[in-house]
Amino acid sequence: MPRSPRSSTRANIAELVEQYRSQQELVRRFLGQIQGYVSDSNSLGPLIHGVRARMKDPEHLHRKLERNGCRAAVNGRQTRVTKQNLLRVVNDLAGIRILHLYPEQFYKIDEHLRAIFKEESLTLVEGPIAKTWDDDTRNRFLARQIAVAQEPSMYTSVHYVVGSASQVMVTCEIQVRTLIEETWGELSHSINYPSPSPDSSFDDELRVLARIGSSALRMVECIQARHGRSVAAATGVVGKKARAPSRAVGGSASTRRSSASPSKKRL
Length: 267
Known about the structure:
It is built from ten helices and eight strands. The chain is an alpha/beta fold. It has a single domain (5-259), classed as Beta Polymerase, domain 2 (2-Layer Sandwich), CATH 3.30.460.10. Strands 1-4-8-7-5-6 form a six-stranded mixed beta sheet. Helix 7 runs antiparallel to helix 8. The longest helix is centred in the C-terminal third of the chain and has 27 residues, at 201-227.
């Protein structure tokens, strides 16, 4: 007797999750490489406040495949996930998050990341895409020719997907965001993941927090410009009262490396 579509889908998901379990070492190895490129970069070092890394939990992959019907978005198109393309089209099995302080630092980070991708023969599968809801932020990115995607949830971050140069391509999602955007993201994730909060008021509160965060980022820029604490080497932007160069943003290299230790949290 043939299996029902539902039971067939469940069996397919179980096979995909098992395939992921059997290939986790490939994902782990690629994640470690990307993390090393970022954390050990002398160019990125002064720009970055912290780096976080993680691999997707197999149970979370199972839920994702259930939600999406064994399909994944690749460059805006829905693609059926198979055992053969799993590591390529499910592009958040490995994830790196880069945190920085000043909004203007992103453009230098982007420049150095692209140089790393080229130097290490990594494929830029997707991005950078700035996910944002704020009109001013969106216009800034567009002015620098960074693609944007509207986020009704008021989530804000810039996403890249890079692919390995190995025979079996493995992809890794890289997120770049400010510390203030990280606060919003972590709060949302702690309550809305893996299942959305049933309390509708939480979404309203997140919207309020996003607007507060946007205002806070404007204040960060104003303070930096007004008091001129020199981050010119890191951002290319000199404050109105620029002084002699001070300690690089993000502390010493050893501090940055310790912050780059793999995290179990989902990005």
